Structure formats: structure tokens, C-alpha cells
Amino acid sequence: MNGSSDLINALFIFVLAGFIGFEVIRRVSPLLHTPLMSLTNALDAIAVVGAIMLVGEHKSTLATVFGFIAVVAATSNIVGGFMITDRMLKMFKSSHPAAKPAAKSVTN
Amino acid sequence: MTGELAATQVIIELLYLVASVLFILSLKWMSSPTTARHSVWAGEIGMVLAIGGTLLNRGLDYRLIAIALVLGTIIGIPLGRVAMTAVPQRTALSHAFGALCVTLVGSAEFYLRTPNISRFMMSVLSLEVILGGLTVTGSLMAAGKLQEILPQRPLTYKGQNLVNFLLLAVAVAIAVFLVLHPEAKSLFPFMVLIALAFGVLLIIPIGGADMPTVISLLNGYAGLSAAAMGFVLNSKLLIIAGALDGSSGLILSIIMSKAMNRSFTNVLFGAFGQVQTSAAAGEAKPVRSATPEEAAAILSAANRVIIVPGYGMAVAQAQHKVRELYDALTKRGVDVRFAIHPVAGRMPGHMNVLLAEADIPYDRLIEMDEINSDFPQTDVALVIGANDVTNPAARTDASSPIYGMPILDVDKAHTVMVIKRSMNPGFAGIDNPLYYLDNTLMLFGDAKAFVGSIVRELTGGHG
After folding, report:
1. Do B98 and A17 make contact, defined as CB atoms within 8 angstroms?
2. Does residue A14 sit within a domain?
3. Coil, strand, or helix at residue B382?
4. Angle at CA A35, nearest 5°, toward A30 and A40?
5. Res. B463: pLDDT tops 70
6. For residue B384, what are the β-bridge partners?
7. How confident is the model at residue A101 (pLDDT cuts 50, 70, 90)?
8. Do B353 and A17 touch (CB under 8 A)?
9. Chain B partners of A83 at a C-beta cutoff of 8 Å?
10. Which of A19, A84, A87, A106 to substitute to test the interface with B, most B CBs within 10 Å?
11. What does DSSP assign to residue B289?
12. Which residues pair with B309 in a beta bridge?
């Protein structure tokens, strides 16, 4: 009933998001593959929302303890992941710093 | 359900929708270094909205949540400040943390819901904890190897693949049983434990040279397990984030295995450790070597130089000296570029990050496919700490274990200079015919010290 339509919806979302992922990530510059990985890692830590519910709802001791550790692990990925991604991206400089920010259109 | 409660739910879902869009934009902006820094902003805003939305749920124990968030932040800050050379192991560690979160949430959900779990739900839940569990220990093992706490050499034994397959088969069998009998609570921990053990065994036979592929693959697993968690919790946001992360990991693994001319299964089950000892034990062939003075003279007489960095440069922490060399040569009007092999280093893009850290402009870092045709017109190819990715045997010797792997054609340059500690074969134990070519000069020494001496020669001679 409701359960199976939820499942179909979820599958639709998964497949479509997977396609978007493939198309978007195919275009990521190989220069940035390391920051890409730390960024997706931080984004993936969105799993923290599930863990927050476990901690907050306090349904059983086990669930609360597991949820607590999960929130700590995911939060450290969010904080550390975004920080290091930003640090890495800051380092990538072009050899034409004098050129205007729209250096993309510069020929050759 | 009261109207107010429903309204809150709508707000939460809308916040999740905005977060999903921001996550996709975040990845889209990674397409170019000029827009990449927006990526972090988009990701951060999305994350804040999603967490904020979650906290709108009624009746949550905020105190405990706050403690966990603060604790996570305290652990996260040092992980965000590690040295750039430690990024591969940090990345592996964060895959482990991400997977740990997923595995714990999955396990907690199982115990909360058993025995009322539909077959589909139990299948996804099993997938979540098996993938999550093996990613936790697999990533910890990878991090340990990269940090050199664990031996980096691949460990292989007879029947290794059989043991691994059997172990996985047992985990899957338990999963199938649980799908049919979700009330069999006592079996669940065994499934998780086997997944954890499988993760360890999976990485034992993996050598350092395979790390870029393995890290990418673990990234993909972490993403897929998070997507599975999204199915379990019926969270569209989580499904989207997991699918994005999963596809990212899978694309990177495909790129990495292509760059090594190997299939996924070959990387995971074919252990590179089967060293061709016969080649390594071959009789000593003559090589030509040069001093820093000679190397400096050749470099300063060149018009076009391509530097080929590899993991050895990272180990020797030579990237800042390389930058000085780049400056000294550029000042003399030499055109210096860097040739980046996709699997140079220990993770995708490793060399780019190290060289960018040393302030080398990213438009000087050229991908293999783009730069390979330029080697014949290049005066000097300077190889710093790279080995297998420059091995011409990959093109010519069908019996070589790396035969067919795309390489940087450094041997086609007029002069090749290779900075190397000694004639010991590289990590994969494969002999490199490049070193015996007539146009090759071996520069024996530590990469950092040797580049330093060349720089001293160049700058000293100039003023």
C-alpha cells in the first residue's frame, strides 16, 4: 500500500540523483579530484540527520548510544571535510592573477 | 495529526529540498577551479539548512544532540587542519567515520523495528550495514597503510580470495535469513561482525600503488551505504546525497582503474603483490648518472621542460623545492610544465593538491592525455619520485605486469632525468627499462636534497 509507493518514489529519486551525480561529476576537473572527494565526504555526512533523530527521540538506550556516536562521527566529517576542502581550493591559483576574475574567456 | 504539526513537516521537507539543490550545485561548481570555492559555501549552507530543519522536529532531546554536535566539531577541526601530505590518510579516515555513522544508525534502526520489518526494508538495511561495516574497517586499514602504521606491502596468501568470498557469502546468507525472519535478532551482530572482518581482509592484499583506486571505491561504498540508509529512513535528502557520493566514488574508481589498465575486480581480488621477482633480480645493466651541477646545466640550456612528479616527491616532501626549481627555470625563460598521471600519488588528484600547496599555478599542471603528445618536442623530462607511470614496458613488453597501462611518454623527450634514491625497483617491484635508455640520466639522491642542489646551482650561477 503506502509502503510500496514510498519505495517506488525512493527508487525514482535514487536513480535520478545517480544520473545527476554521474553527469555533474564527469565534468569535474581532474585537477580537483582530491577536494572533490573531501567535499562529497562532507556532503555524505548528511547522514547526521538520521543520527540526530535517534539521539533526540531517545527510543531506547542502545539507539541513543549508537545515535550519539553516529552524530559525533558525522559531525566531525562535516566540519573537517568542509574545512579541508576550502583550504585545498584556496591553494589553486592561476598564473594570470593580474587578469580579471573572468579569466575563463582569455584565449590560449 | 494537527495542522501545525503537518505544517512543520512541510517546512522540514522544503528545507531538505533546498539542501538537495545546494548539494548538486556544490558538485557542479567543482567543474573549474574558478568556481570551486562556491562549492564549499553551497555545501555548508545546505548542511546548515538540513540540520536546522531536522532540529525543528518536535520533542527532541536537544541537550544530548548539542553535546554530540560539539564533540564532533572538536574532533572535526583537527581533521580539517592536517598537513596536505596527510590528505590521503585523512580522506580514508573520514570514509571510515561516514560509514561508522551509517552502520550505527542502521543497527539501531534494526533493533528498534524488529520484528516488524518488511522484506524490502530488511534487504536494504542489510545492504546498509554490510556495505557500511566493510567500509569502516576497510577505510581504517587503508588509513593505517597510508599513515604507515601498518605495513604497506600487500599481504597475500594461498586461497585468499576463496576465504574472502566465503566470508562475504556467509554475511549475505545471514542477510537473506534475516529478510525472511527479521525476528532472529541474535544473528544481526554476526552479520555486522563478518562485514567488519571482510573489510579488513579486503584491504590486506592491497598495495600502496593501488590506493587511489581503493580510496575511490571506499568512497563509493560509503555513498551507497548512505543511500541505503536513506531508503531505510525514507529520507529523500539522504538518498540524493548518497547517490551523489556513490556516483562520485564510482566515477573516480573507473578513472583510476582505467589509468592502471585494470578492472575493479582485478584491483580488489588480483593483489598487485605478485611481484615479478625475476625482473627485479636481473643482472645490473649499466646506467648513466649525473651530478646536480650537470643536471642544472642541462636544465638551464633547455627551452621546454616537463616535470613528472610521483609519490616519491610527496614522501620526500620535495614539492616546495620543486617550486623553487620551477621559479628558477621560469626566470631564465624556460617553459616548465608538470605532467600529472591520474594515479600518481596515493589518491585521485594527490599531485595537484601538493603542487598547488607549493604555489605552482594550476594552469601549469597538465593531464596525461593532454601532455603526452608534447614529449617529443620537450628538451628535458625530469621525473621526480615517479616510477611505474613512466615505465615504457607498459607500451612494449607484453609480459610486463603493467603492460597496457597508459603511461607518460617521458622516454620520448630529448633528455630524461630521473631523481631516484637507488636502483631498487619501485613499489610494485617492476623493473623500469627507462633507466637504461641512452637519453636517460639518473640523478641519485633524496628528491628534496637533489632538487635543492640543482636550485642552488641555478640561482648561484645567475647572481
Report:
1. no
2. no
3. strand
4. 105
5. no
6. B309, B419
7. very low
8. no
9. 76-77, 79-81
10. A84
11. B
12. B384
Instruction: Report whether B184 contacts B178 (CB < 8 A).
Output: yes
Q: B404 falls in which pLDDT band (50, 70, 90)? A: confident
Chain A residue nearest residue B31, CA to CA: A28
Could you tell me where the beta strands, DSSP code E, fall in B282-331?
304-309
**d(Cα B238, Cα B260) in Å, to the nearest integer?**
33
Assigned domain for A53 exists: yes
**Residue B108 · residue A62 · CB < 8 Å:** yes
Q: What is the mean pLDDT of chain B?
A: 89
CB-nearest partner of A21 from B82, B109, B244? B244
Whether residue A37 and residue B72 make contact (CB cut-off 8 A), yes or no, is no
Rounded Cα distance between B242 and B259, Å, is 25
Chain B contacts of A32, Cβ < 8 Å? 30, 33, 36, 349, 352
C-alpha cell at B61: 532531546
Over the stretch B274-286, which tens digit does the pLDDT of each residue have? 443 344 444 567 8
Does residue A95 belong to the interface with chain B, where contact is any CB pair within 8 Å? yes
Q: Which of B77, B245, B258, B311 to mutate to test the interface with A (most CBs of A within 10 A)?
A: B245
- Choose among B166, B68, B185, B165: nearest CA to B125: B185
Residue-level pLDDT at B342: 92
Q: Model ipTM?
A: 0.89
Domain boundaries, chain B: 1-81, 84-271, 284-462
* Dist CA B310 CA B212 (whole Å): 13
CATH of B284-462, one of 3.40.50.1220, 3.40.50.2300, 1.10.10.10, 3.40.50.2000: 3.40.50.1220
Sheet holding B335-340, edge to edge: B365-367, B335-340, B304-309, B380-384, B415-420, B440-444
CA distance B270 to B205: 8
Please answer yes or no on whether B94 and A80 come within 8 Å at the CB atom.
yes
Q: What's the rounded Cα separation, in Å, for the pair B209 and B227?
A: 29
Contacts of B27 in chain A (CB under 8 A): 21, 24-25, 28, 36, 39-40, 43
pTM value is 0.90
Min Cα–Cα distance to chain A from B200, Å: 20
- Which chain B residues have a beta carbon less than 8 Å from that of A67? 68, 104-105, 108
Nearest-CA distance B225 → chain A (Å): 10
Task: Give a yes or no: residue A43 inside a domain.
Answer: yes
Please check whether residue A4 lies inside any domain of the structure: no
Amino acid letter, residue B147: Q
Contact flag B87-A38 (C-beta cutoff 8 Å): yes
Please name the helix (run of DSSP H) or strand (run of DSSP E) that holds residue B74, with its range, or none. helix B62-80
How many domains is chain A built from?
A: 1
C-beta neighbour count of B66 within 10 angstroms: 13
- For B62, name the nearest residue in chain A, comparing CA atoms only: A56
Structural domain range at position A82 = 30-92
Identity of the amino acid at B347: M
pLDDT per position as a tens digit, B158-180: 778 888 889 999 999 999 999 99
B388 given a catalytic annotation:
yes
